[in-house]
Amino acid sequence: GEDVEQSLFLSVREGDSSVINCTYTDSSSTYLYWYKQEPGAGLQLLTYIFSNMDMKQDQRLTVLLNKKDKHLSLRIADTQTGDSAIYFCAESMYAGGTSYGKLTFGQGTILTVHP
Amino acid sequence: GAGVSQSPRYKVTKRGQDVALRCDPISGHVSLYWYRQALGQGPEFLTYFNYEAQQDKSGLPNDRFSAERPEGSISTLTIQRTEQRDSAMYRCASSPRRAYEQFFGPGTRLTVL
Asked: Residues of A with CB below 8 A from B98's CB?
């Protein structure tokens, strides 16, 4: 079955790097995602990685995927106070046709950035 | 361009009443998804559509919940005889053809008294 787990809290100082970790159980996952949720706002897609990749970099964001251990991480370089939010890891599987089906989310990691 | 919109943004209802939540996807998006998010949790899948066809409704908790997308655009999630445990944020997402990205709307906060 599908299960996505994340640590609940992370606190860092402004300017430091943040690393948010996630583990998943479904080995047939095709895409893995990171979403950001700010208070009162919707879910914002930050980045995603296809399951045949090991790493993806996008400006301050670096995603690392270890398929053997089913471990996904999101590194935010030079973390700013505006990065304070809840970060969700999610996985999806190809559902046939034109669709990638449902997303299975972790419970979210609350990132707090201190000045 | 316009993103996914949902209405109402907030809905307070009494136990036993029916509610209808609306989702207006990004224009031209083929797939539409409904999720429910309890406080302190990640969103949980309810159901999804490709065009007007409901592809998967395995996440609907019981037969009080139903969804439709009759013209392949706007979708309505209906909860009949609401219960307090139905209180949650209901989120809608849409996705273009052959795409793996889902774009979320702001959600509808449902409170059942």
From this structure: 98
Q: What are the φ/ψ torsions at residue A25 (nearest 5 degrees)? A: -115, -20
Query: Using CB atoms and an 8 Å cut-off, which of residues 27-46 of chain A contact chain B?
Result: 30-31, 35, 41-45
Task: Please name every residue paired with B22 in a beta bridge, in sequence order, or none if there are none.
Answer: B7, B76
Q: What are the start-end ranges of the E strands in B27-87? A: 31-37, 44-50, 53-56, 65-68, 75-79
pLDDT tens digits, one per residue of B45-62:
999 999 999 999 999 999
Using a CB-CB cut-off of 8 Å, the residues of chain B touching A104 are: 45
**Position of tokens 């991480």?**
A73
What are the pLDDT digits (tens) for A49-99?
988 889 999 999 999 999 889 899 999 999 999 999 999 999 987 666 656
Helix (H, G, I), strand (E, B) or coil at A111: strand
